[in-house]
Amino acid sequence: MQYRDVIATALGQIAANKLRSFFTLLGIIVSVTFLIAVLAIIQGMNVYVQDNVAGAMIGTNTFQVRRSPINITRFADDDLDRIARRPIISKTDAAVVREVMPDAEAVSMQSGWPTPIADVTWRGRTVGDALVLGVTAPYQTVQDYRIAQGRPLTDIDEEERRAVVVLGADLAEKLFEEVDPVGKDVRLLGEWFTVIGVNARKGQVLGQSFDGFVLMPLSRFEMIYGRRNTTTVSVKVASAEEVAPAMARVEEALRVARHLRPTQDSNFSLETSDALVDFWRTLTRVLFAIVPAIVSIGIVVGGIVIMNIMLMSVTERTHEIGIRKAMGARARDIERQFLVEAIVLATLGGLLGVLSGWSMASAVAAASPLPARVTTWSVVLALSLGAGVGVAFGVYPARRAARLDPISAMRAE
């Protein structure tokens, strides 16, 4: 028999037993659907974080001087102890960076993680869960903030520790609605602050607004919260190509300023947006390891079902097998026929699972902020798993069919 005849026979058997074929494939369909949908969401999140979140938090032409690295999960316990003993990033460090980077577009300081959350009140109206950020004036340039109303924070506000704030667009809209917020006094953290400006809208990422914040001078922030151990310095240069050489200059200057010997490791970290992407991928790598393991259980179950159905099919078609052998079919022809049937079944299940998973991922992306991206390699993986299951669990039924005695098989009812 030619392979096209074998495949046509296999499809004919599937078409003749639609309900049985469907339940045979159900385990593989469900498993592959879950695999495709989860991998699509994870892959979509990876791309989204790289293109949107990381760039929004740390621009591609920006780097940060931090006390500890962003992706701290990659360090051993001894390294974590050394990182915990590092000195905080101080205003002296920021001054060193400004001195060595006179050509930078902006060098700023900002309060670090965890960012305080507070209620903001105006005339009895309160908006909760506002992020409170203590920053120096250049931070607004680093983050590409644009003022829609009023004015931005200035160096004078920082030097005089003024009780002034700039509001994010969402916060201002919810708190003041149609009223001009500039010049109004809001209550925040038990103190009164004058609104001097409102930022232009930045938008949302994964359903989370980038406009629900309060900016205040870092000096005023430290009066309320104290100096943060995670305060960072951000440096914005003209282009992404200038980041690497600028980081080298800053690292050398800070090592000299902190009196570090050549044999000593730096007691600070320099981070770019790539660090955020790497940190996210470290987290999702765990899911990439767990998901196939869970899916493999369903695949194995589906394979066992296919093997049982194929054994049942061999029993039901014993008479047919005897006739084929009597007409000259060789044992390998019979074996090939049943093996191809198992592979076609499993591959069809994988294909249906891919389509179902694709649809599920698209539905999740349409109904939620979670992005989804079905990649070629995940589709190839799913189809390969299906075909592999067909081979692994179809061999035994195929060999059993091939070994049937033609005389005994023809006598079977």
Number of domains: 2
Structural class: alpha+beta
Output mean pLDDT.
Answer: 80
Spatial ordering of strands, largest sheet: 3-4-11-6-8-7
The largest sheet is: 6 strands, mixed, barrel
What's the shape? elongated
Bin the helical content. 55-70%
Explained architecture:
The protein folds into 2 domains: 3-52 and 278-411, no CATH class; 62-273, no CATH class. The longest helix is centred in the C-terminal third of the chain and has 44 residues, at 273-316. It has 14 helices and 13 strands. The chain has a 6-stranded mixed beta barrel. It has a 4-stranded antiparallel sheet with strand order 2-12-1-13. With 413 residues, the chain is α+β, with helices and mostly antiparallel strands. The radius of gyration is 32 Å and the shape is elongated.
Short description:
This protein is of the alpha+beta class. The chain contains 14 helices and 13 strands. The strands form three sheets. The chain has a six-stranded mixed β-barrel with strand order 3-4-11-6-8-7. A four-stranded antiparallel β-sheet has the order 2-12-1-13. A two-stranded antiparallel sheet has the order 9-10.
List the helices and strands and how they pair.
Blueprint: H1 3-16, H2 18-57, E1 62-66, H3 77-84, H4 91-100, E2 106-110, E3 117-122, E4 125-135, H5 139-142, E5 147-150, H6 155-159, E6 164-167, H7 169-176, E7 185-188, E8 191-199, E9 204-205, E10 208-209, E11 213-217, H8 218-225, E12 232-236, H9 243-257, E13 269-271, H10 273-316, H11 318-326, H12 331-367, H13 376-402, H14 406-411
Parallel strand pairs: 4-11, 6-8
Antiparallel strand pairs: 1-12, 1-13, 2-12, 3-4, 3-7, 5-8, 6-11, 7-8, 9-10
